[in-house]
Amino acid sequence: MIKTIVIGAGVIGASIAYRLAQAGAAVTVLETTRIGGGTSGISFAWTNAHKKPPKSYHDLNVAGMKAHVALADEFGATPWWHGGGSLEWVAEPDRAAQRRNIEQLRSWGYAAEWITLHQVQELEPDIDPATIGDAPVAFFPEEGWLDPVVYAHAMLSAARRRHGAKVVCGARVIDLIMAGDRVTGVRVADSAQYEADIVVNCAGRWTNEVTRDAGLHLPLAPTVGFLVFTPPVAASLSRVVRTPAIDLRPDGAGRLMLIANTTLSFDTRLSPSMPEARDWVRRSRQLLPSIGEVEPEAVRIALRPMPADHFSAVGPMPRVSGYYIAITHSGVTMSPFLGAAVADEIVSGRQRAELADFRPARFFN
Ligand SMILES: Cc1cc2nc3c(=O)[nH]c(=O)nc-3n(C[C@H](O)[C@H](O)[C@H](O)COP(=O)(O)OP(=O)(O)OC[C@H]3O[C@@H](n4cnc5c(N)ncnc54)[C@H](O)[C@@H]3O)c2cc1C
After folding, report:
1. Position in ligand 1 atom list of the atom nearest CA 14
2. Which residues does ligand 1 sit against, CB inside 6 Å?
3. What tens digit of pLDDT does each residue of 88-115 get?
4. Which of 147, 304, 343, 357 could crosslink 20 through cysteines, CB 3.0-4.6 Å?
5. What is the pTM of this model?
6. Whose CA is closest to 171, among 7, 357, 342?
7. Can you give the residue ranges of every domain in the chain?
8. What are phi and psi of 334, to 5 degrees?
């Protein structure tokens, strides 16, 4: 039986751990904080392949979207995944680009359609049509969003209960153990050691922190993401809506999650009363007047785990054996597909063609 260590219990580590365990590997997940305690817990978590060229990257995202849907057959219910599609309209100067994107998506077989204002009101009756004006509205019926922490927990619970995986929280990996150029395990902060045939690094934006060997560091270019949350509000929003002023979606119990471009730095002192947060809620109130004079309830900031060229890095690390990396933005969308593909590569030794353009080796040539 192949012995594996998965570092990190975000959506990527949880997905890979589940599929590895299901495929018969012995799996130990080492997580420094808690399940979903990293970026996965601070994510807009929109499942989409909306604007993700080139085709091979688009396809990875579509594969993730399909894999989320397919989990319903395997788990019976998937309360962590929410379908319903997404709506999008853009400001006048961006409309030609929006049209081009939709034409490209359709040519790739992606579900994207133009809908009328009347249809918008049937889908989202609380949106004030005046905020849309004469903007064409696009609908992407196969998109959705995820509750990433609930998903990661479900995958790890299934890995443990059905397939005997071990999940150790409070275990911070501080270095790889090497025998020559072979990785044979990891050392954790309390000086305990774990041995494995394969170590799979799913530490997200902390990927480089699990080894002191700078030669095994991947070039990263993380970007800042800022989210604002309302308290429960009187609006029936039920899908991802993307507008020139704000993007938003439901976040359970009547709360809304808001995202827009930000110039905030990662070390910004956060407070729900900060001007950016109040401004975003104000913009949301213009879209959804029924929410009333509500104030932000919470704000969160995170760094997106992003390889330097902004594409996924999934595969064996060059120069060593026994060490595999899986780091990506859009990880919420791709996670169930990556889980299956990575487990397939590790357990069967097959090379998955879908991952060919995204090997970590491209950074070391
Ligand atoms: C604001 C924002 C919006 C986003 N929106 C979307 C979106 O709409 N759609 C989408 O698909 N994606 C989106 N993303 C990206 C997506 O959230 C990430 O790609 C995904 O969560 C990455 O998951 P992960 O498991 O790789 O990383 P993480 O969730 O960060 O998991 C890594 C885990 O490793 C643990 N760890 C770190 N170091 C160690 C160590 N030394 N030892 C042990 N454990 C360790 C961490 O504690 C963490 O739990 C967004 C991200 C942000 C920040």
Report:
1. 25
2. 7-13, 30-33, 37-40, 42-46, 172-173, 202-206, 209-210, 225, 227, 302, 304-305, 327-333
3. 999 999 999 999 999 999 999 999 999 9
4. 343
5. 0.98
6. 7
7. 3-68+148-218+308-363, 86-141+223-304
8. -85, -15
